[in-house]
Design brief:
Elements lengths: L8 H11 L1 E4 L5 H17 L9 E3 L8 E4 L7 H8 L2 H10 L3 E9 L9 E4 L2 H4 L1 E2 L3 E7 L10 E4 L11 E6 L2 E5 L5 H5 L1 E4 L6 E5 L4 E3 L11 E8 L3 E2 L1 H17 L4
Antiparallel strand pairs: 1-12, 2-3, 3-4, 4-14, 5-13, 6-15, 7-12, 7-14, 8-11, 8-13, 9-10
Helix pairs in contact: 1-4
């Protein structure tokens, strides 16, 4: 089942432009999610050993079962390349962007039971180093998510403010920068939690402020896939991006986090 296809594209874009995000509960049915989860479990066994230390992060570096984040899954496996580059999720990205979408990165996010750390408030576009800031992230829940295991939370309408919120160094692996003035009156009044079932797709603007609580569940993980697309009009500052990544990698190595 793909519930999104029953909603007119004009309504999807209007909702996205107003709020800075859209949600489908669910986008994919149980059978499709079982398939995606099987393929991910295979990927963790077959492909993770091939990945560089800057493409896979662990909650506990000494415990390889605590994978918390991976990047560029599409580089290592045709199943995830197809999931990112073809089909309904890319179509939705183009609908809300209002222009052609260029697939950039498929990510994996997990918060292992009891030790999954918080995701600090941030704006994805702060990391992207693009202009204009025409980019979106899709977030597909691979299992049920709620407040206990760390569902996403958005600040509705935060994408509409000019410029970027101030960001500073975060100690959370995988999220090197966090918003330093988070908690304004607008933030508090417009916070919307996003719980949902496996198969839920969230899609947000690269300027939308979002975060997630730590995983407080002693038994449940919180696995999700991320889909990053840039609008065709967005141009990357490659020199700035390379410098940022090199500095981040050096800091993580010095801290023995990768």
């Amino acid at each position: 089942m793909i519930a999104a296809m029953s909603i007119p594209h004009s309504q999807l874009k209007a909702d996205f432009d107003r709020d800075g995000y859209i949600a489908f509960r669910p986008l994919f049915d149980a059978a499709r999610m079982a398939e995606i989860n099987r393929e991910l479990d295979r990927f963790l066994v077959e492909c993770v050993p091939q990945m560089s230390e800057t493409e896979v992060y662990y909650e506990d570096k000494a415990n390889r079962s605590t994978v918390k984040q991976m990047m560029y899954l599409e580089k290592y496996d045709s199943y995830f390349k197809t999931l990112l580059s073809d089909g309904v999720i890319k179509e939705l990205a183009e609908t809300v962007l209002g222009e052609a979408a260029i697939a950039q990165n498929m990510e994996y996010f997990n918060k292992p039971p009891g030790i999954g750390k918080q995701t600090p408030p941030h704006q994805d576009g702060y990391y992207f180093k693009i202009a204009p800031p025409k980019a979106i992230t899709g977030w597909l829940a691979l299992e049920p998510v709620d407040d206990e295991n760390g569902c996403l939370q958005y600040v509705r309408g935060s994408h509409a403010f000019e410029g970027w919120r101030p960001h500073g160094r975060s100690e959370i692996l995988g999220f090197s920068q966090g918003i330093t003035d988070f908690g304004t009156e607008h933030d508090v009044a417009n916070t919307v939690a996003q719980p949902g079932p496996a198969g839920m797709l969230l899609m947000h603007d690269c300027k939308t402020v979002h975060w997630a609580s730590p995983n407080r569940s002693p038994t449940r993980s919180r696995r999700a896939l991320g889909f990053v697309y840039f609008g065709v009009s967005a141009k990357a500052d490659e020199e700035m991006k390379r410098a940022y990544q090199a500095k981040l990698d050096a800091e993580l190595k010095a801290a023995n986090k990768i």
